[in-house]
């Protein structure tokens, strides 16, 4: 565990030092994944179903706010739909407009969830999203999950009915009816929306409880609940969802949830302290759970030649600075020092670490 | 000599000002009623447009049936039904908006109160010097 905690600290340090580069890179990868999946699923407009366009747009997304990923996802989807049929694009535009008006203007941060969900559905791992969003998001994030699910089923409906739409040619109303039927009478959409919304809310509510291992309980119960609702929905409405995919998805959701927990909520319940005190107005019942951390390994200077201790004291500051700059063995004048690792914290080194 | 406490406090406050603080300060410019009313008004407009879009899709979905029955149906009753659904939809949306914006306002005020306390602490640190 200590090794893992050290690794976590190193990753955190690495991220905080290089966030300027890492964040755009993550956005680039997410945009590439999402837009690539949209192209793979729809792909009716050859001009944008092109790796060069994909790379340029993903690169633009890496420098733009994260909401732009959703914007380009919608633009790509609508362009593909337009290439298939103008009526389909019109219905798609209406669906996106309603989502934008009713929800998205309040939670622009959740735009990435909406954009990511269709891509994860296409990669057959959507069951991770409600658990992870419930852990890191708020109660309102359930609506984002619902919006993302609706967006995916709409895209899927267009893809499934593409040949029928092409055959209809000039029957505009028929095309609109066919596409809307794919949403309104889609039992799989209904079951998935209910399962994901309930799971997100349950995970969010359980993780906030003041019980030990609340995050683990939340993610496991969320994954099981999701599975149960989807299975019951499958039995009642015959939705033809893949059971194997659901079970694997539940395991994956818990695994990724544990990873998120490790980085965001790593506490030691074994050292929980419960204290009680009062002031003039209140009684306080406080439960304090310490975070899991590792003390930083530090370096100490071992004097080999004690006769020259005066020199050492005088050049103490200089030696500290040089030690920081050069590494393990340092020279101060004619003095040679060896450094060794131990668990004790060297406060002076900490001070200088702040300076550099 | 660098005062560590002061540096930590100032760093935290600067980080807050750049991220969450910006949004909170823009919210705290308003009185609570003004802020909530502004959101609800925007909600009425957005809800009306969204309802119009949904209604248009509904009509397009059942257009043939609608055109077949247009001379038989009671248009006044149909319009009043649509109006009732519209009012119910916008009212429900506005209630949700009212709750969300009130919560946002309270949260922002609480967060800013903490920020102002930190400002006072910083002032005290300067005065100590």
Mean pLDDT of chain A: 80
- Radius of gyration of chain B (CA) equals 25 Å
Identify the strand order in the major beta sheet of chain A.
3-5-4
Helix content of chain A: 55-70%
In words, what does this structure look like?
The complex is a heterodimer of chains A (356) and B (129). With 356 residues, chain A is mainly alpha-helical. Chain A has two domains: 2-265, no CATH class; 298-355. Chain A is built from 15 helices and five strands. Chain A has helices at residues 2-41, 51-63, 67-84, 86-104, 111-122, 128-136, 141-160, 162-168, 172-184, 187-207, 214-237, 243-264, 309-314, 316-326, 347-355; strands spanning 273-278, 283-288, 298-302, 330-332, 335-342. Chain A has a three-stranded antiparallel β-sheet with strand order 3-5-4, covered by helices on one side. In chain A, strands 1-2 form a two-stranded antiparallel sheet. Chain A is globular. Residues 310-356 of chain A have low confidence and may be disordered. Chain B is an all-alpha fold and 129 residues long. Chain B has one domain (4-128). Chain B has five helices and no strands. In chain B, helix 1 packs antiparallel against helix 5, helix 2 crosses helix 5 (75-128) and helix 3 packs antiparallel against helix 5. Chain B is rod-shaped and about 90 Å long. The mean pLDDT of chain B is 87. The chains are: A mainly alpha (356), B mainly alpha (129). The interface between A and B is medium-sized, with 15 and 15 residues.
